[in-house]
Design brief:
Blueprint lengths: L2 H10 L10 E2 L1 E7 L1 E9 L5 E7 L12 E4 L10 E6 L2 E7 L5 E7 L3 E2 L4 E2 L17 E6 L2 E7 L5 E6 L20 E4 L11 E7 L2 E7 L5 E6 L12 E2 L11 E4 L5 E7 L5 E7 L3 E2 H5 L2 E2 L10 E7 L2 E7 L5 E7 L9 E2 L8 E2 L1 E6 L2 E7 L5 E5 L6 E2 L8 H4 L2 E2 L29 H16 L10 E7 L13 E6 L12 H12 L3 E7 L4 H10 L5 E4 L10 H9 L3 E5 L19 E6 L19 E3 L24 H22 L12 H11 L8
Parallel strand pairs: 1-28, 34-36, 34-37, 35-36, 37-38, 38-39, 39-40
Antiparallel strand pairs: 2-3, 3-4, 4-5, 6-7, 7-8, 8-9, 8-10, 11-12, 12-13, 13-14, 15-16, 16-17, 17-18, 19-20, 20-21, 21-22, 21-23, 24-25, 25-26, 26-27, 29-30, 30-31, 31-32, 32-33
């Protein structure tokens, strides 16, 4: 530990750094008819253990425990690197106590190689790799492997394998190739076994190597640049004067024309720099961009590409907490850091992989040595047992969050995003942030990705200005129940409501009805012809106006009906159809949960309220041509589509998480949604 690290450790109350001494899970995905995940870890006994998941089956630890692959004089908790260059091949790499790198491989037809092959070490005496050093491996073609590792001299070394049929094996073992590990240089690099080297392959003839130097700046060298199959002669400095010297960092490529880098700064914040073809490095143009967070030294960073427009970042703090943030192309900004709840404390770095755009698997090791995992679809932590014990008993799956029951669904399912805690907001930015947080929640739980049931929502209002929605495909039908074009909305009221639902949902298709006094006919049409699942009614009458029978038929058919309470404030009262007993009446609240002054007095039955004060469905960055959708508006009529969106989220979330569960009270029903809202709500004054 150097002087800077000691200062930081004292500042954060950390006794020591555990770099090179924490657990690290290696995980690879592959597909042979079914999807597979293989994970590997070096335990305290210096042996390598593996477990496997196959699509349609439980983890192998449930029936057989962890499989022991043995070791070759490996230090406890050595970093294991795993690579799958073909679906039927696996390669492992570990640095032993003798400073040499060892490999072991598996093929579908022959199984695991019995021993471990010695690939030698760095330097004239082969002793420059510290025991347990991370070996970074990349395969740019099925029969090409490149290895990189940092040495105790501060240099980076490389060796490669290009297939038995071509050059006869590993370059470090064959004199006519090299006969040794090649020195890449890089003396600005810290003399440590830390994971501060990253390698990317963006195509068959492309390699990018990165490391973090003693001065905190990140350095880069490329191979195959501009069709030239040679390494750049010099290291390119990518900036980063404010970054942690020699610290952890991660690199990803969302596609062949992009690179994203992440590192921790001296201030504890996570920073990023990105490269795109034709524009170069953002860190050189405008400096490394901060992503927030305050993480002490020894906090490793993991980065995963879910799909081209979705990045996930995980950080494990030395205190044993897991933090996550993510970026999506749709939103265009990074989510605020969230601290994950789970069966922690942890010991090591988070490992994550994505087998589909809607699924993220995360692997961690608890301080007890127990491996745990979670993913987007199950939303719970599962114990895979301790690798040191290979018995099936210790490997049995243990769901660390309770299974759903009819008494608890809605309470522990999810937290709808809470707004910022600033009690004196200078502007309406907090209301915008509530919308952004809700959108991030949709992305975080994979709503709208993969196969999800589509919900049909009818908006019966003033019509829709279809020109406000460029290339929007979720308008399934528009119909006027009065004279006039349904695609002309002179008041903008219906357009605004539709925009809110479109902004806060991913699994909803809209059916637009333009109405004035023909509400009963429109409701009947939505029930019989459109066969909708949900109705959004932001209007009200002092008298039932003959609506009761038709609303009752909708409810009996399982259609969920939302209606605005009224915007007549204390002088008014709850209006129809919101006043009907089985209709979900919606009141308005601020982003802090405070009841709107526009609400009518609360009544004895449910008084549900949600965000409806000073809201707008889009923000300045996406203002429509005439600015209509950039206006802030308030009232129960605007809170109603927000409530519709929350209901759509919960229905899809529950179906996605527990598709086979037999509910006593179906979530997609008027009674089911009321029950969910009751379990989710907190009473503030007279409103829920």
């Amino acid at each position: 530990m150097d002087k800077y690290e000691r200062q930081q450790s004292k500042k954060y109350g950390i006794r020591e750094f555990n770099e090179g001494h924490t657990y690290r899970i290696a995980a690879v995905e592959r597909k042979i008819e079914r999807k597979h995940i293989d994970i590997f870890v070096c335990s305290d006994d210096g042996n390598i253990y593996t477990a496997k998941w196959t699509e349609g089956f439980e983890w192998s630890t449930m029936t057989r425990g962890w499989k022991k692959l043995g070791g070759c004089n490996f230090p406890p908790r050595a970093v294991v690197t795993a690579l799958s260059r073909k679906p039927n091949k696996l390669d492992l790499f570990v640095c032993g106590n003798d400073n040499h790198v060892y490999t072991k491989w598996w093929t579908q037809h022959q199984g695991w190689y019995e021993g471990w092959q010695d690939l030698g070490g760095a330097g004239d005496r082969g002793d420059l790799f510290a025991p347990g050093t991370e070996i970074v491996a990349v395969s740019r073609l099925p029969d090409k492997i490149d290895l990189f590792a940092s040495s105790t001299t501060g240099d980076i070394f490389n060796c490669y394998w290009c297939g038995d049929y071509c050059c006869g094996g590993w370059s470090s073992l064959i004199p006519r190739l090299s006969g040794k590990w090649d020195n890449f240089g890089g003396r600005h690099h810290r003399k440590s076994a830390a994971a501060n080297v990253a390698v990317l392959s963006r195509g068959p003839y492309s390699l990018n190597v990165f490391f973090s130097g003693d001065d905190g700046r990140v350095r880069h060298k490329a191979w195959g640049k501009k069709g030239n199959k040679r390494w750049d002669p010099h290291w390119e400095i990518l900036g980063g004067d404010n970054l942690m010297p020699g610290g952890y960092f991660a690199a990803t490529a969302r596609h062949s024309q992009n690179i994203d880098l992440f590192s921790r700064g001296k201030d504890g914040c996570v920073y990023t720099s990105w490269w795109s073809k034709g524009r170069g490095w953002s860190g050189l143009r405008e400096g490394w961009a901060p992503l927030g967070g305050t993480f002490p030294p020894g906090s490793p960073i993991s980065a995963t590409v879910m799909e081209e427009g979705h990045l996930e970042i995980s950080v494990v703090s030395p205190s044993g907490s897991l933090y996550r943030t993510w970026w999506t192309k749709e939103i265009g900004s990074w989510h605020n850091w969230i601290k994950e709840s789970g069966p922690f404390v942890l010991n090591g770095q988070a490992t994550s992989l994505s087998m589909s755009p809607s699924n993220l698997d995360i692997f961690l090791v608890r301080s007890s040595g127990e491996v745990i995992t979670s993913n987007f679809t199950t939303d719970c932590w599962v114990s895979l047992g301790s690798p040191a014990s290979t018995s099936a008993r210790n490997g049995i799956l243990n769901r660390l969050q309770p299974a759903p029951s009819s008494q608890q669904y809605g309470l522990e399912i999810v937290d709808i995003p809470k707004s910022p805690t600033n009690e004196n907001p200078p502007s309406n930015s907090e209301d915008d942030q509530w919308f952004r947080n809700f959108q991030d929640l949709i992305i975080a739980h994979g709503i709208g990705r993969g196969i999800n049931k589509r919900l049909k929502v009818a908006i019966l209002d003033s019509g829709i200005d279809i020109h406000q929605f460029n290339k929007e495909t979720r308008f399934k039908e528009t119909l006027s129940f009065v004279d006039g074009d349904p695609k002309i909305d002179s008041s903008g009221h219906g357009t605004y409501i539709a925009a809110i639902i479109l902004q806060l949902t991913k699994t909803v298709d809209l059916y637009i009805g333009k109405i004035t006094n023909s509400k009963k006919v429109a409701i009947t049409y939505a029930r019989v012809v459109w066969d909708v699942d949900i109705m959004s009614l932001s209007f009200g009458f002092d008298e039932p106006s003959g609506l009761y029978d038709e609303i009752d038929r909708c409810l009996n058919n399982g259609i969920i009906v939302f209606a605005s309470a009224s915007d007549d404030a204390a002088e008014g009262h709850r209006t129809y159809p919101a006043k009907f007993s089985r209709v979900i009446c919606v009141h308005s609240a601020t982003w802090q949960g405070k009841a709107s002054h526009l609400n009518p007095p609360a009544e004895e039955n449910e008084n549900f309220s949600t965000v409806g004060e000073s809201i707008r469905p889009i923000w300045i960055a996406k203002v429509s041509k005439d600015g209509t959708l950039a206006e802030y508006r308030s009232g129960t009529s605007y809170a109603t589509p927000v409530a519709v969106s929350i209901a759509a989220f919960m229905i899809t979330f529950i179906e996605k998480k527990w598709p086979a569960y037999q509910w006593v009270l179906k979530p997609q029903s008027p009674e089911g949604i009321k029950r969910i809202f009751k379990l989710m709500s907190t009473t503030v004054g007279d409103y829920d």
